[in-house]
Amino acid sequence: MDISKIKILQNVNIYGNTYLLTLQQSPSILKAKPGQFVMIFPGQEFNPLLGRPMSIHRINNKEKTFSILYHTIGIGTNILSKLKKNERVKIIGPLGNPIPFNHASKNFLLIAGGIGIAPLVWLGDTLVANNKNVTMLIGGRSKNHIFPIKKLKQEIEVEIFTDDGSLGTKGLATKKINNFLSWTDEIILCGPEPMFVSAHEIIKQYDGHIPAYALFEKEMACGIGICYGCAIKDKKNNPQLVCTKGPSFELSNIYL
Ligand SMILES: Cc1cc2nc3c(=O)[nH]c(=O)nc-3n(C[C@H](O)[C@H](O)[C@H](O)COP(=O)(O)OP(=O)(O)OC[C@H]3O[C@@H](n4cnc5c(N)ncnc54)[C@H](O)[C@@H]3O)c2cc1C
Ligand code: FES
User: Fold this and answer.
1) Whether pLDDT at 3 is above 90
2) What is the DSSP string of 35-67?
């Protein structure tokens, strides 16, 4: 983990209210793995005081850059969207743990809801580079909330779902999970918690155990296990800190 003021190389709106922030790589980011995140401090002074957790979206080792995909939702992300090329931004990271997928598995089903696509793109890149078969179900409110699929590795099979039917199939991405249960060895999800609940309902009824990992997005004050603000409960009612134990947890172990 490193604390550094990192140079912005690009900060552009790529769809709807979603931006791609490209930053110069720091030596410790180089060692990060899909699923890990950084705390980014968008304000140049102390407003906002706290950092904002953001998944590492992609790392480009050739160009020595990494990127963050974020949507503007409140004060921090709106300030972030105004930062310009060559300005510097304070980053702490990498934080959290990599997605603990099984390297022996062959067929992976990734399910992204809204901005939950952010960490799954790099996971998809990594799985394809390791000769895995990847299908991605991508859901969003409308076509303005869907990541451009031409930016994904072409080996990935993609299905799009929108709430209003403006792109792909109308309805929720989770409604297609059943079609993949006899094919997939592992399921990895990132998105809103109601998506995890409905996915878990479907997966647990399948005759056979398929590991399903979900990346939780809790509000975080410190990102390093001090404030206890990011706790979720496991099935035994024990608190689990998303920042230090997660952000990926096996769905069947978490109290939803
Ligand atoms: C491990 C992790 C990885 C994340 N990765 C990404 C990412 O790659 N891209 C991205 O756009 N966002 C990501 N998030 C969510 C992101 O951190 C929040 O959207 C961001 O902190 C909002 O900051 P803000 O100042 O704009 O909003 P605020 O002004 O702080 O809040 C605006 C609204 O958003 C809600 N909110 C704030 N933080 C969260 C949160 N973590 N989850 C759900 N609701 C929240 C608040 O309750 C409030 O209603 C991630 C969160 C975690 C924990
Ligand atoms: S964010 Fe402070 S303990 Fe997790």
Assistant:
1) no
2) T-EEEEE--SSSSS-S-EEEE--EEETTTTEEE
> What region does 30 belong to: left with phi over 0, alpha with psi -120 to 50, or beta?
alpha
Q: Domain limits of the chain?
A: 2-95, 107-253
Which CATH number is associated with domain 2-95? Answer: 2.40.30.10
pTM over 0.90: yes
CA dihedral sign of residues 39, 40, 46, 47: negative
At residue 207, the pLDDT reads: 81
Question: In the structure encoding, which two tokens stand for residue 70, read together?
Answer: 């974020």
CA angle 85, 87, 89 (to 5 degrees): 120
Q: Hey, which of 50, 95, 216, 227 would you mutate to test ligand 2's pocket, going by the most ligand atoms within 8 Å of its Cβ?
A: 227
User: Could you give the C-alpha distances from 155 to 37, 96, 124, 215, 247, in angstroms and in order?
Assistant: 25, 28, 9, 23, 26
Level-2 CATH architecture, domain 107-253: 3-Layer(aba) Sandwich (3.40)
Phi and psi (nearest 5°) for 142? -150, 180
Instruction: Give the contacts of 13 (CB within 8 A, at least 6 positions apart).
Output: 19, 81
| CA gap 119, 244 in Å, rounded | 17
Residue 122: phi and psi, rounded to 5, are -70, -35
CA 219 from centre of chain? 14
Mutate which of 21, 38, 54 for ligand 1? The one with the most ligand atoms within 8 Å of its CB, which is 54
Q: What percent of the chain has pLDDT over 90?
A: 88
Among 71, 52, 40, residue whose Cα is nearest residue 147: 71
**pLDDT confidence band for 27 (50 / 70 / 90):** confident
